[in-house]
Amino acid sequence: MTTPTSDTLQLLALAAALGWASGLRAFLVMFAVGVAGLAGWVQLPPGLHALASPVAVGITGVLALLEFIGDKIPGVDSLLDFISTLLRIPMGALLAASVFGLDHGFVAALAAAAGGSLAAVSHGTKLTTRAAINTSPEPFSNVGASFGEDALVLGGLWLSWAHPLVFFVALVLALIAMMWLARKSFHFVRDLLGKMVRLFSGRPEPGPPPAPPAISSRALPPMHDVTDVHVQDKP
């Protein structure tokens, strides 16, 4: 038996999960939510019922499949990530707000802001991390990272519905790890781009600062021993 408090917690967790997961796979999120609602596995909030129609599931399924394939191809994935910046963050905000519906205007606005922010964090981490991974010539790390993101999206959506409290703990830990990973990846990509620019422009690599010139002892004026002072007696 559910209570109003547990229902609210579940809605909050679902809104956070939709926002965060949309930053990784927007079409997969919409397809998974639609299938879960259409199959009757979960009772979707009214604002998400449109995703559970057969037409919507078919369209989002095709888009999710194209996204799934493109995300496994090195280089193509980074291009898709760059283009998807215009989609994933607004979609995260829209899906999070749809959990509460237009009849809860203020709460929906807060959910949209939180969902968009979570989508921006996860998308920024994905964008920089996958760009860093693409510098490796072998494709296996790219494919492995892509499958890992698929699992995170589906696992996060399930956890938000089945165990909201556990999801929030996992979300906090995931955000900390993502921000650390995004920072490391950003510095790596920035340094790599700087090296490429210097390579094609012919500018030399910056080296360590030159050491100060050594001072030769011969250049120093002679020093007198202050203890070697002869005091003459007055007559």
Describe, in plain words, how this protein is organized in 3D:
- The protein is mostly helical and 235 residues long.
- The chain has one domain (4-201).
- It has 8 helices and no strands.
- Helix 1 (4-22) packs antiparallel against helix 7, helix 2 (26-38) packs antiparallel against helix 3 and helix 6 (105-133) packs across helix 8 (164-201).
Radius of gyration in whole Å, from Cα? 30 Å
Termini separation comes to 118 Å
- State the secondary-structure class: mainly alpha
Number of strands: 0
**Weakly predicted, low-confidence segments:** none
Q: Proportion of β residues?
A: under 5%
The SSE order reads HHHHHHHH
Q: How many helical stretches? A: 8
- Helix proportion range: 55-70%
Structurally, how many domains make up the residues? 1
Question: Which descriptor suits the 3D outline?
Answer: globular
The mean pLDDT is 82
- What summary fits the major beta sheet? none
